[in-house]
Amino acid sequence: MRFNESWLREWANPKLDTKQLVHQLTMAGLEVDGVEPAAAAFTGVVVAEVRETAPHPDADKLTLCQVFDGDSTFQVVCGASNVRPGLRVPFARVGAVLPGDFRIKPAKLRGQPSEGMLCGASELGLEDLIDGLLELPDDAPLGRDIRDYLQLDDQVIEVDLTPNRADCLSVRGIAREVSVLNSVPLTEPAIAPVAAAHDEQFPVAISVPESCPRYLGRIIRGINPSAQSPLWMVERLRRAGLRPIDPVVDVTNYVLLELGQPMHAFDLAKLEAGINVRLAQEGETVELLDGQSLTLRDDTLVIADAAQVLALAGVMGGKASAVSDATQDIFLECAFFAPLAIAGKARRYGLHTDSSHRFERGVDPSLQALAMERATALIIEIAGGEAGPVSEASSPEHVPQPTEISLSAERAQALLGRALPEHEITDILARLGMAVTETSPGHWQVRAPSWRFDMAIEQDLVEELARVYGYDRLPTRLPTIQGGSVSRSETQLSARRLSDLLCARGYLEAITYTFVDPAMQAALAPSTQPLALTNPISSELAVMRTTLWAGLLTAAQRNLNRQVNRLRLFEQGLRFVPEAGGALLQEPMLAGLVFGSARPQHFDDATRKVDFLDVKGDVEALLAAGGQQDYRFEAAEHEVLHPGQSARITLDGQEAGWLGRLHPALAAKLDLPTDIYLFELRKDVIEQARVPAFSALSDQPSVRRDLAFVVPEEVTAGALLDGVRRACDSRLREVRLFDVYQGDGIQKGSKSLALGLTFQDRSSTLRDAEINDLVAGVLTLLKQEFNASLRE
User: Fold this and answer.
1) Residue 375 has pLDDT above 90, yes or no
2) Is residue 373's pLDDT more than 80?
3) Which domain holds residue 306?
4) Is 232 found in the same domain as 339?
5) Is residue 488 part of a domain?
6) 556 shares its domain with 538
7) Which residues sit opposite 736 in a β-bridge?
């Protein structure tokens, strides 16, 4: 929100200089982003009148002008196309200093003397509105310093408002704050109802009252299309960052800045039958004032007549019904739109306007009639015309009602750390426009004003007391922290525990966007249609990720492009998987990426590339953290992973995640090395922990038997280990794979798996016969289930 200080001081004028005023606003929560002069520094420029003009004898594009400054007449050579007798303009006398330290001296231009310079806006450091001299009103006082006349010794203040303070998106709103903070009167301009000069009305109707509870319109006939906005209005718009266009548009923009009410004017001749505030039909189109053509969705609120969509409600008007240089009759409108009906609609279509910015945050629902009268009076004053009666369509039950909130002095003291006098509490609230009723000593019922729609609970009122009383006046002390332990389930691992474990194994934690490049997402999950963002911050961050690998692979690309040759990254976060019926599964995951050497470079360690088993060891360490023993790694294919080096991880038959090497085809598509390894685990599964239980130690000796089995090539070691466990009873304490062999002495299509079986009884020493019986049972089961035989 930009505004000039002199305009604000017309509403509320405390005895503070600019620096003090800016500090006060910031301390009250209206953070000031910047303060800059309204115009660049210059001196010696006054109001003057061009009395006579004549062509330059030696230059076709120059004019000899006789310029009167109220005291003397000077000859000035001017090249502006709009110079003419009777024109009042800024005149830089000899000796004047213009922006950029440009000094005016007597000169000769093509042989003719020139005693000064007639100035356009750019010469004064202002924005050029026309190509030529800055034209001043006919009643501009001759000889008056132009800085004084245009009030250029002014400051432009820009405040950065939080979304809850939409009531300050106007000079009136800021002035209310200044008035409250300094206990100075609020001087509002007199806004009287404009009497109807005719009885013509244009019908208005609302089809969606919950989205638009109030809509006002008024016909103004016979305006002067060639009228010019007054200089005082042009300057205030310019200093607020708005470019003047024509009187009707300028007035609606002025009311927007002054009161905070967005307004719009239609060319009455371009409207048919009546106005209807409704939802767009799917596929309906509209061309906006900025030239964009939009295809609308059926949840978009629009202003329409009987023939077409006229405007995107609360955002921007349409080109087909816009006011032009030929417009003589207008339909002036303003409305109250529910914030939720407007929120996000502008961004969905790639738009952001002053109107949408205000309606999304909230506009005073009681402001529309006042704004209509103010705009009507200004238009008639500037461009003439005759106003008709105001047409209104409203749904009172959908108009927001003032909030009633209970407040106690005890609660205020607890939150502020200081007891405020009761009379000061009621005074502050009253100055804020709130109706305060004492219900009992130290307790009040407070009704918020219509413009403070951010007031909802008691804490909101206490925050207002703190702002106005002064944060710097409140006591400062350290909070008291109550001791106590945090209860945590023994059957649940913490995310911190998993992070610490991976960091200890050399991984770095990454945090990537939950929205990713559609091309990357399509490469990783071509069969899944991700949720697309309505208003992405960029085309490369346009869909929600269905796997954390999207962010990790993007991070890998950036690191590899910067010559990083060893990566060990992990991330914990949500993936977003669309489900049937339009639901979205938000599933917490833990994912990792590994590339490069197995260990950091060291002088006494040969460099070795990381392989599948290295990463499997890291994953097994994660899975073992909770004490679970029933995880299984099953050979399976995944569209992202190498078909010969990928595994599905399960726990009690429940899928826990995937592990494997990046698919070569995908690596080539993403311009990545093929020796990247990935894993992704479901956190709800891997965070399951088993409560530790005591198991008595045996004092009996253990016996180990090593057996090498020849099995078909497709038999997995895990399946063979499970078979051994099924064949034995509790006397089998451990079974471990210690060798895999294929080659000489082993038939083609087979392999040798060497297992170490450790037996131990808890109460007695095992005899050879018992051990032989156990081994025989193992041989029999493995022969039956896997066609396994002992290797000779």
Assistant:
1) yes
2) yes
3) 204-398
4) yes
5) no
6) yes
7) 756
Average pLDDT over residues 376-399: 96
283 and 349 in a single domain? The answer is yes
Q: How far apart are CA 3 and CA 82, in angstroms?
A: 31
Helices (H) and strands (E) in the chain, counts: 21, 38
Task: Quote the pTM value.
Answer: 0.72
**Residues 715 and 642 occupy one common structural domain:** no
Compute the 3-state secondary structure of the chain and give helix, strand, coil in percent, each to the nearest 5.
30, 30, 40
Q: Across-strand partners of 269?
A: none
H or E element that contains 331: strand 330-336
Average pLDDT over residues 772-777: 93
Q: Are residues 505 and 546 in the same domain?
A: yes
Tell me which amino acid residue 184 is: V
Tokens of 340: 């939720």
Region 731-751 average pLDDT:
91
Residue 129 pLDDT level (bands cut at 50, 70, 90): low
**Measured CA distances, 650 to 612, 658, 717 (Å):** 18, 9, 16
Which among 82, 154, 762, 30 has a CA at the least distance from the CA of 468?
Answer: 30
pLDDT at 642: 95
Task: Examine the domain organization and report whether 391 and 412 are in the same domain.
Answer: no
The pLDDT value recorded for residue 35 is: 95
Phi, psi of 579 (to 5 degrees): -120, 170
Looking up residue 172, the CATH number of its domain turns out to be: 3.30.56.10
* Long-range contacts of 472-479, Cβ-Cβ distance < 8 Å, separation of 24 or more: 472/27, 474/416, 474/417, 474/418, 475/417, 475/418, 477/417
Which residues have C-beta within 8 Å of that of residue 219, sequence separation ≥ 6? 198, 200, 201, 202, 268, 329, 330, 331, 332, 387, 388
Q: What is the pLDDT of residues 62-116, one digit of tens each?
A: 999 999 999 999 999 999 999 999 999 999 999 999 998 999 999 999 999 999 9
Q: Does some domain include residue 544?
A: yes
In a 3-state reduction of DSSP, which class is residue 329? coil
CATH code of the domain in which 353 resides: 3.50.40.10
Q: Is 64 helix (H, G, I), strand (E, B) or coil?
A: strand
Cβ neighbours around 255 below 10 Å, total = 24
- 2 within 8 A of 169, measured Cβ to Cβ: no
**What is the mean predicted confidence (pLDDT) over 675-704?**
89
Indicate the residue among 369, 398, 427 that finishes a domain.
398
Query: Are 374 and 191 spatial neighbours (Cβ–Cβ below 8 Å)?
Result: yes
- Looking at residue 643, its amino acid is P
Taking alpha carbons only, the member of 61, 75, 68 closest to residue 107 is 75
Mean pLDDT of 371-376: 97
Instruction: With respect to residue 697, please indicate whether it lies within any of the assigned structural domains.
Output: no
For residue 725, give the H/E element and its range.
helix 717-727
The domain that holds 628 is classified in CATH as 3.30.930.10
**Six-digit token string for 759:** 């037996």
Q: Which residues are known binding-site members?
A: 454, 460, 463-464
For residue 99, the cross-strand partners are none
Binding-site residue numbers for Mg(2+) are 454, 460, 463-464
**Cα–Cα distance for residue pair 72/543, rounded to 1 Å:** 71
Which CATH number characterizes residue 53's domain? 2.40.50.140
Q: Give, for 595, the enclosing helix (H) or strand (E).
A: strand 584-595
Structure tokens at 735: 């079974």
Total structural domains in the chain?
6
Structure confidence at residue 486 (pLDDT): 65
Look up residue 214 and give its two tokens.
């109030």
321 and 429 assigned to the same domain: no
Question: How many Å separate Cα 78 from the centre of its chain?
Answer: 51
pLDDT greater than 80 at residue 463: yes
Domain boundary (639, 655, 686) is at 686
pLDDT at 652: 81
The CA distances from residue 546 to 251, 509, 568, 628, in Å, are 50, 19, 21, 27
- Nearest alpha carbon to residue 427 among 370, 472, 468: 468
Percent of the chain with pLDDT over 90: 81
177 shares a domain with 297: no
In a domain, 332, yes or no: yes
Residue 344, both tokens: 């996000």
Whole-angstrom Cα distance, residue 105 to residue 76? Answer: 12
